[in-house]
Write a structure and sequence with these properties.
eleven-stranded antiparallel sheet, about 35% strand, mainly beta, Glucose Permease (Domain IIA), globular, 3 helices, five-stranded antiparallel sheet
Amino acid sequence: MVDNRTPTRVNARLSLILAAVATLVGCTVGPAANPAPTATSAPPASSSEGLDPDTTFTPVIASMLTTPRPVMGTDERLHLAYEFLLTNATSAPFELEGIEVVDSRTQASLRTVGTEELPRTVTRLGESAGGVPGTGSVLLRPSETWIAWMDVQLEGDEIPAEIEHRLIGSIDGRNGPVSFEAAVGTSPVDDRPAPTVGVPVTDGIWYMSEGCCFDDTHHRRGFAPVNGQGLVPQRFAIDFYLLDEDGRTWEGDPSDITSYFTYRQPIIAATAGTVVKAMDGVPNSTSMPEPPPIPPIQETVGNHVVIEIEEGLYALYGHMDPGSVRVAVGDRVERGQELGLIGSSGNSTTPHLHFHLQSTPTFFPSDGIPYEFDEFELLGTITERLWDDNLGLESDGLLPFERVEPSIRRNQLPLDRTVIRVGP
């Protein structure tokens, strides 16, 4: 259960906790050792020590994977989508019962993840990023590292300058569990508006698959340990699939690439820039509708183009049809210019366009950056969780499409499973 105790109130108990779990910080307490001070007898820190009065030992280490940056979703809410690692740095189990995200300045609560969400929100590194079904606390065993997949939805348009995370839980002490609460994982928030770009496909009805921000998708929860660094390059990525008016993705034989409406649709530049990567010659997958073998890391996104928009901001267009890439490194492209055709090269089961913004010219390693499309029409959602790998297995290619009253959206990111119309 998540309570509202402040870190200051808990800090008054820290000396008792340390006495109970002294071995957790490598202390050896012998008969001649001075007794640990109690909560009421602990002397105040001398000003010459320069320690913040809230400084404490914590059993869990938190490491942010990115600097959160807000993006407006099609739910018309600002989202902070980010992750942080939690490592139990002790020799005793730590039972996590809740995470609260607060504004560091005002201490206002922005998001609370309680036991009803923890098993799906905090996942053990190396295991399924989707978590486990059910509710309850999460047990971090000694030396284990877990990932907290966060989606903080801000009320209104006020963006905190800095956030921090309060962990609520307990740790095994000499005389049983000892309650613990502390602030960890303090991070600035990048309050710059998300870059606005055009939709990178031509007119039609498009399914926005595997997108941001809360659900478990292979993009949103695609943790990538590359070159000794852990990043989430696809955090805001979208896979584009063309639908017909009835909500079908293919017609005919799903093992035939030409049955998919998306195949060889034009890919257009979402914004102007300079081509820094242009790869061609990777064949389309031939195992559809089943997933292909995992390709070499260099061919993950297959034939692709990367365009530098500005320093530190790059647009990636992936899985192009072999032989269709229209641009070369060094070319200056304008918004709306054709870059190539959609295929199914690289790690792709059926034809689609993979699009996202990233922090480096290369897919690996890089960090995913939020973006918004300047204009599109929102038509509805796909009501079931359909992994990209399953689209070719849907009966007659028909998806469970729930329509809403169409509405023009501007400067928004289509959230996972939305369906939009591009053009008239």
